[in-house]
């Protein structure tokens, strides 16, 4: 249903994204600190795979991460 557009929001773990190529994802939201910058880049790389569109990536981290 997500692939056909009937469902427009998908919450998933990294495992759900393995091998998936969905070209028209506009937003990628990461909640919590990823283990490495490579993991963050991989997660954000899910947005805007269709090069004709823009994508927005958002990282939500707890306040304690900035102390």
UniProtKB/TrEMBL annotation:
Keyword field contains Transport: no
EC number, UniProt record: 5.6.2.4
GO cellular component: chromosome; cytoplasm
Domain Helicase C-terminal: 1-67
Catalytically driven reaction(s): Couples ATP hydrolysis with the unwinding of duplex DNA by translocating in the 3'-5' direction
One GO-annotated biological process of the protein: DNA recombination
GO MF term (any one): DNA binding
Keywords: DNA-binding, Isomerase
UniProt record similarity statement: Belongs to the helicase family. RecQ subfamily.
PANTHER family referenced in this protein's UniProt entry, alphabetically: ATP-DEPENDENT DNA HELICASE Q1, DNA HELICASE RECQ FAMILY MEMBER
Name the UniProt record assigns to this protein: DNA 3'-5' helicase
Organism field: Athelia psychrophila
Lineage of the organism: Eukaryota, Fungi, Dikarya, Basidiomycota, Agaricomycotina
